[in-house]
Write a structure and sequence with these properties.
The complex is a heterodimer of chains A (about 110) and B (about 130).
Chain A lengths: L6 H12 L2 E2 H11 L8 H13 L3 E9 L2 E8 L1 H27 L3
Antiparallel strand pairs in A: 1-3, 2-3
Helix pairs in contact in A: 1-2, 1-4
Chain B lengths: L1 H9 L4 H22 L1 H47 L5 E7 L4 H12 L3 E5 L6 E7 L1
Antiparallel strand pairs in B: 1-3, 2-3
Helix pairs in contact in B: 1-2, 1-3, 2-3
The chains are: A alpha+beta (about 110), B alpha+beta (about 130).
């Protein structure tokens, strides 16, 4: 059983599934992945990363110097990958069921 | 100007968070303000800070409720113990295998002090005394 993830957390996990990343990179990636719909502010991102870390889905990956400033990096854990895969499967299943209903609905 | 506004908004977070992550939050918010605008980032920090304070207050309440429940359980057990063992406040056991003089003197001292001591295992190689002070 994995923790339930919010939409914001889903995009953070999806961003980190590609590679370890820092806060700014995660926010930018989430915005691109969602077509501009999910725009994570620093406050939202900070809270979400803390919750994901507390749930064991994400973990700190140290600090690195990037473009003249130290940045905190994060990485997805095995539990985080499992939670992401489970949530994507749930969404796929939901989309299939609802999509079938839309196709058969009278015009 | 933008940075000063964001620094002010970070004050919405508890002091402990500001001390640990305040600089990181301001830097990240300043960077993201370039994409989202300062107002959006400022609101995000205020909302995040209040949420963090609410979360901590909730955790504090849960700890208080837990402590109250634990204290209540302890009182209940004490009350039950007092009800099922009225007046009994202390119990000690003395045992010796042979050469029981010292132990017998200890038991006698308890009896002199008002304890009720009863010997057990009289047929075996040793003796056990159970002393109770009511």
């Amino acid at each position: 059983m994995v923790a339930q993830v919010t939409e914001q957390a889903l995009y953070i996990l999806a961003s980190l599934a590609r590679a370890e990343c820092h806060g700014y990179g995660i926010s930018r990636d989430a915005e691109e992945l969602s077509g501009g719909r999910v725009r994570l502010t620093a406050g939202t991102l900070y809270g979400a990363l803390n919750r994901l870390t507390a749930d064991g889905l994400v973990e700190p990956a140290g600090e690195r110097e990037v473009q003249g400033r130290r940045r905190r990096y994060y990485r997805i854990t095995a539990a985080g990958s499992a939670a992401l895969a489970e949530e994507v499967e749930r969404l796929r299943s939901t989309a299939a069921v609802l999509g079938a209903r839309v196709r058969t609905a009278p015009a | 100007m933008s940075r000063r506004v964001l620094q002010a908004c970070v004050r919405a977070y508890p002091r402990e968070v500001r001390g640990r992550d305040g600089d990181e939050l301001v830097l990240l918010a300043t960077e993201l303000a370039g994409r989202h605008g300062t107002a959006r980032e400022a609101l995000g920090l205020l909302r995040g800070g209040w949420a963090e304070r609410r979360r901590r207050a909730g955790r504090g309440r849960r700890i208080a409720v837990g402590l109250a429940a634990a204290t209540g359980s302890l009182l209940a057990v004490t009350a039950w113990s007092a009800a099922t063992h009225p007046g009994r406040v202390e119990q000690e056991t003395f045992t010796c295998a042979d050469g029981c003089g010292d132990v017998e003197r200890e038991v006698d001292a308890r009896v002199d002090a008002g304890w009720d001591c009863a010997a057990e295992n009289r047929d075996g190689p040793g003796t056990t005394w159970r002393c109770t002070l009511d």
